[in-house]
Amino acid sequence: MNEKKRIVFQGTFDPFTNGHLAVVQAARAVFDEVIILLLVNPDKKPLFSLEKRQAMIEASVKDMPGVSVEHFDGLLVDYLKAHELSACVRGVRNSTDFDYEKQNHFLSQKLYPALQTLFLPSDPQWECVSSSAVKTACEQGTLPQEWSVAPLRLLKTIIHTGGKLPKEWVPEPVLRELKKTFPKLLVF
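Structure (tokenized):
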């Protein structure tokens, strides 16, 4: 019997960026199915509701066969055990991301020894793009649509762009919601 190869890409995705989308595309090139898993993190105050984030992600991946979006209120390892899955993918933009994700992997593997994590290096164009960077740019008034930027480069970019959001930072469905949330947002 030929079982499908499935992998989980977990996060809060607040909001989902083109950097996240690139991880999904890369994982989908190797796996039959990619499950984008929105995890509830009680320590974070999200900009968008869980339902809105799920809708934005679904709209962003609607043309990608083999990609689904789910949400879970609990530990990743509990979701994996319940669904008999063992593979996760994490995008890493830099050594700081790698160290953080590696530590999370080892801690999670203590709880679920079957866990295997695939670390995908970011495409250089997304190296500085993060959900936090997108939110900061929006709060400053403008967002480059293609961005997801690491803190230092984000600050430099915001200073140089006058707080604008590069349109390449986020998928179109996410950009529409950001414009609704930040009506004065300037996109370039």
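The beta strands are 6-11, 33-39, 67-72, 87-92, 116-121, 144-145, 165-166. The first helix runs from residue 18 to 30.
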